[in-house]
Specification:
Layout lengths: L11 H5 L49 H15 L4 E2 L13 H16 L5 H9 L9 H12 L8 E4 L1 H13 L5 E7 L3 H9 L3 E8 L2 E2 L1 H13 L3 E7 L13 H13 L3 E5 L15 H4 L5 E6 L11 E4 L3 E3 L5 E3 H9 L8 H13 L4 H4 L1 H21 L2 H7 L2 E2 L7 E5 L6 H11 L1 E2 L1 E2 L12 E5 L5 H18 L5
Parallel strand pairs: 1-14, 3-4, 3-6, 6-7, 7-8
Antiparallel strand pairs: 2-9, 4-5, 8-9, 10-11, 12-13, 13-16, 15-16
């Protein structure tokens, strides 16, 4: 996997320094590069020389894996090229956020505790100021929202409130993957958060083919059986069923049912990540895999980053699978995840939960209805992006240049196929010379794929910026394409 323009900066190894004892350093500077107070003796502890530095190759192997750079790139690329129009980050628009809303939602939540639950001021104070329940304090509100919005009906205790969905992935993988033979199946291309989490935990990942309509269920079966033939144990398959990041692809209803059948037949769990399901551009919302799940094969990963407030960093894991202990005792997977969470983040911020809880209470736990304006905004943005691509690249011009793109039914992303290598060097030229940013698809692909593809995200722009951005992108693609027009 290649990564982005971050390749042009100094590597971590270079920053740490790998020179031997004879490495040059200037007067007044210690060999590790720290300054002393002039040329006299230092008043603080003196490092023992270069041997005191940590060797990168002695640290965890993930620290030299380009995969982990991809997430940082997605978060920081805008600041690297502040004048460029950025189709790179998949963050939500800030247009509907007001600073005063945070205090308002906190008040809504504390009023809810006082009026609907009859809590005293002392109880509310403890709820907000103390560590709180490891599994979360708004799990009951999340359960109500899932029932209203997704027709998912589960006990509140089967929900673990996490510090973003990313923690939910880490907890779930840590619980499910017990040894080196355990593997995770993922679609390729795939969201870097799940593959990065697997890398941190030394969990082996096996890619599964993704077509224009998302993950292919039959390829899941093939991958699971190939893993077993190799002496591995396929534990779970990660999938974003609606408007996947990075491809924008979605599973049909038929494919969803078939995937659940295969999960049952192959004894797999499905890790369903659902950050974009509300944001439909065309057609009706499809049921989540968890809503269709009749055999508790689906662990549902959720987040309020796109539907409520990304800065709160609140997500959740719905894990209602039964767990049997060595003496026949029974629990649910959510309880086991809480054990791991108690030794990592301890609990999710009570203040963040209170803000999200206030948003849920204010909406009557009907977030889909509360997101009517953002849904319309993202729909209009995706339509504008598709219309501008069509305007700059009508069919005859597309054929001459050798480019095309997919037509997602919703979400934030689409993929453009181009006739040149869309790597970090091309991205830097695009930003520097044409003032437009995008993301190389090779950042998301397991193996050598995606080299002639780029991802566009339209979530953080308005239609006017989209129009200007596509104009710049069209100039870049035309300049890069080998066929003159």
């Amino acid at each position: 996997m290649t990564h982005s323009v971050r390749d042009t900066t100094a590597t971590t190894a270079e920053a740490a320094g790998t020179a031997g004892p004879a490495a040059h350093h200037t007067p007044g500077q210690q060999p590790n590069g720290t300054e002393t107070a002039g040329t006299g003796p230092s008043t603080g502890p003196v490092p023992a020389g270069p041997s005191a530095a940590l060797r990168l190759d002695a640290l965890h192997g993930s620290l030299t894996d380009p995969l982990l750079e991809a997430m940082n790139f997605l978060n920081e690329v805008v600041s690297r090229f502040p004048e460029a129009i950025s189709f790179a980050p998949g963050r939500p628009s800030e247009g509907a956020f007001e600073p005063e809303d945070i205090a308002r939602y906190l008040r809504v939540y504390t009023d809810h505790l006082e009026r609907e639950r009859g809590w005293s001021r002392a109880q509310i104070r403890t709820q907000l100021y103390q560590y709180g329940r490891t599994g979360g304090v708004i799990h009951d509100l999340i359960a109500r929202a899932l029932a209203f919005d997704e027709d998912i009906h589960v006990p509140a205790d089967s929900i673990v409130v996490t510090t973003g969905c990313q923690e939910g992935m880490l907890l779930t993988l840590r619980a499910l993957c017990a040894g080196p033979e355990d593997v995770l199946l993922v679609n390729s291309p795939c969201y870097v958060g799940i593959t990065g989490a697997a890398r941190l935990l030394d969990v082996t990942v096996r890619p599964v083919h993704e077509g224009p309509e998302g993950l292919d269920p039959e390829s899941v079966r093939t991958a699971a059986r190939a893993a077993r033939a190799a002496g591995q144990r396929p534990r779970a398959c990660y999938v974003v069923a609606d408007f996947a990041n990075p491809s924008g692809a979605s599973l049909t209803i038929e494919a969803r049912h078939r995937l659940l059948e295969i999960a049952e037949e192959e004894d797999l769990l499905i890790l369903e990540d659902n950050p974009y399901g509300f944001f439909v551009r065309a057609g009706e919302p499809r049921p989540t895999l968890k809503a269709l799940d009749r055999h508790r094969r689906v662990v549902h990963l959720g987040s309020f980053a796109k539907t409520a407030l990304p800065g709160a960093r609140v997500g959740y894991v719905l894990a209602d699978q039964r767990v049997i202990g060595p003496h026949g005792e029974s629990s649910v997977l959510a309880e086991e995840l809480c054990k791991i969470k108690s030794m990592t983040t301890v609990n999710t911020s009570a203040i963040s939960q209170a803000v999200i809880g206030g948003m849920l209470v204010a909406s009557g736990c009907r977030l889909r209805e509360a997101n009517a304006a953002p849904i319309a905004f993202y729909r209009d943005n995706l339509n504008a992006l598709l219309a501008e691509l069509e305007r700059h690249f009508p069919a005859e011009r597309r054929a001459a240049l050798g480019i095309d793109w997919n037509l997602p039914d919703g979400g934030f992303f689409l993929v453009v196929n181009v006739p040149f290598t869309a790597d970090s060097a091309a991205l830097e030229r695009s930003a520097r010379d044409f003032g437009v940013l995008w993301t190389p698809m090779s950042d998301f692909t397991l193996g050598d794929g995606g080299t002639h593809q780029l991802r566009l995200s339209c979530s953080a722009l308005d239609p006017e910026r989209i129009r200007e951005g596509v104009e710049r992108l069209a100039a870049f693609i035309t300049h890069q394409s080998p066929t003159p027009t």
